Amino acid sequence: MDQLLQHLRSLGFTEMESKIMVELAAIGPSSGYEVAKRLGLSRSNVYAALQRLTQQGYLRCGDGEPSRYSVLEPGELSRMISGRVEASLRYVESEMPRGGPDARTFYNVEGERNVLDTLVRRLDGAVQEIVVDVWREEAALLRGELERAEERGVRLLWAIGGEAAAPAALPVWPPLGGGYGAEGAGPGRRFSFVIDRSWCMLGMRQEDGSAQAVVTEHRVLVELLLSHFMQELVLFGLQQDMGAELEERYGPRYRSIAEPYIGGDQ
């Protein structure tokens, strides 16, 4: 129930309007007095909300005394809301001023839901290419969107981490001075996306599901992520073709190469 009310509020209905619509959908045609009594709300406020919802077309008011109100069937209600939202979005897209400077700024996105929503919107708009560098856990969250992109003809380039990750993966840099930030928080799992070589997101997701990311269309970060992705693929290719020789010379996972730069105690 709480989740349904939350979604109705996100569509622009007030808390009272949301409760009234759910109540009418559950109980059926009712008078304003009955609705106010069941919800424990002020009759004057309920009557005002019923009038607004009726004028907007979401409720029907039957003849007779007292007037009895009923909400549209779920399918009809969702089509009405969808049509109005789409009409508003089309208007905003066509009329929103476009004269501002193209600053190519960086901005932060916090919270798993916000990060995923931002990614889904961009993945759905991808035209040519998506470069994905994630762990298996995060890849699973976006499987549907990525599959639909492939079906549209968008090229997907993958680098997947996890238990079966390639041994040529780059090392994790240890923190300077100890600690990764918040007390008790580990380094998490890094992820990055580059879409159409013009937009990118770089972020981190923790075991508890919390996430934060930086998003930009700045060319420098886009190119850095693409270079890092290419480097991982090159290292993976070298491991596949020359793994035995490299391990014989440098040791397992080639730690002797990285230790002078990142320290041996990880």
TrEMBL record:
SUPFAM superfamilies: Winged helix' DNA-binding domain (SSF46785). It comes from the Bacteria. Residues 8-74 form the Transcription regulator TrmB N-terminal domain. The lineage of its organism: Bacteria, Bacillati, Bacillota, Bacilli, Bacillales. It holds the Pfam family TrmB. CDD domains: PLDc_like_TrmB_middle. Gene3D superfamilies: Winged helix-like DNA-binding domain superfamily/Winged helix DNA-binding domain. Coiled coil: none annotated. This is TrmB family transcriptional regulator. Transmembrane segments: none annotated.
